[in-house]
Design a protein that fits this description.
Elements: H1 37-54, E1 59-63, E2 70-75, E3 82-87, E4 92-96, E5 101-106, E6 114-119, E7 124-129, E8 133-138, E9 152-155, E10 162-165, E11 171-175, E12 179-183, E13 189-193, E14 202-207, E15 214-219, E16 223-228, E17 233-240, E18 244-249, E19 256-261, E20 265-270, E21 279-282, E22 288-293, E23 299-304, E24 309-313, E25 321-323, E26 331-336, E27 342-347, E28 352-356, H2 368-383, H3 388-395, H4 401-426, E29 443-447
Antiparallel strand pairs: 1-28, 2-3, 3-4, 4-5, 6-7, 7-8, 8-9, 10-11, 11-12, 12-13, 14-15, 15-16, 16-17, 17-29, 18-19, 19-20, 20-21, 22-23, 23-24, 24-25, 26-27, 27-28
Helix pairs in contact: 1-2, 1-3
Amino acid sequence: MVKISVLQHAPSAHLPTRPGDPTPTSRNLDPLMHPFSRARERTRALNAAKMERMFAKPFLRALEGHIDAIEVLCRKPGTLNTVASGSWDGGILVHDIAEQKQVHRILDAHKGKVSGLCFSQGSGLLSCGVDTNIKLWDVSPRDEEVQQKPLHIFSGKSPFNSIDHHRSDAIFATASNIVQIWDETKTAAISNLTFPTATETVTSVRFNLSETSVLGSIGSDRSFTLYDIRSGKAERRVTMQMRSNALAWSPTLPTLVLLASEDHNLYTFDVRQLSSPTQIYKAHVSAVMSCDWSPTGLEFVSGGWDRTVRIWKEGRGTRPEVYHTKRMQRVSSTIFTADARFVVSGSDDGNVRIWKAKAHEKLGIITARERAAIEYRESLKERWRYDQEVGKISRARHLPKAVHQAAKLKETMLEAQRVKEERRRKHTRAGESKPKAERKKVVLAEQS
């Protein structure tokens, strides 16, 4: 009998599963059958990097309304779209980021500049200013604009520089010549927190997001201080090389704090070991005035007097994303929105600007096919990031001429300083002058 071998194929393997689905294709994955696959993949990675830079248009909208420089921004906890801004003209505006419009306006909230803002529980907004007053406002949406009066006024003895609300309790902290704890139901401060030997003016104060009884503050004497409201006293204090302008606690790591410094750098500290920073972030060419963490804890935003907004990856101290416009002046305040998709900045020209956190991200509805293509391009860029051409395109950033020239000058000055120290060390007795790590130079003294 003749034996016959028959090739059998299941029709289901070659037909779409459902009407409208693409026809299945079979591929031979043997690498010997595809000698040019690596070259094709590199070309795709190169095109993906070029497309990212082509579609990098981060600026979305400038929200007007203030007639003077913006001093402070704050977002409302538990919402994605509500942001309040305070200005040097004494006015307060509440913005809807999703609809990109102003939803509440308080004219002449303070005499002089509004130096601090924070949302309280419910629809309340706390503001403080250089007129030595703290005011509680009702900022629930309204159809018509009326001359509004505060719900409550707390009077202080000196101008206030900052304010922050407790995450769950009806208490808040203020910064002036001392740190004070207030209760919303009482007219006077319930506690005064100060370090025994401190004489500085406290410029900013923030509650820890996880250990809510822990406070951090920065002062005009280059100090960073930790307080515990349970004991009612300062626990630890460090004096740095130069003063800090802003601080922010990490939302995911309770012990990590970020400081924006006058020496053009940002520093992250672990509060369990304050003798040196865990990371130094270098790119600004002027004083850094503000900083804020993304809700994911993986990146943060900073703004400075070099008129740029920069977005950093946590743990990577160089090459941040840089945002700038021709009209934007010195940036005094920056925050992330609660969904980590947008960044809001306030500057001296009186505008609140909305930016995309990822400059090349597409807004609006994205189909499943588009999503798959985007994820494929991202994986290609990640896999080929060490390729010379792909890396060069991905790292390329346009800077304003003034910022670029200042960066070159700063690089030259730092190199000259390094050469000078090297020569001085070379001409001294062996062992007398030892090189000191950059992280060891930041903190001058630590007290507890």
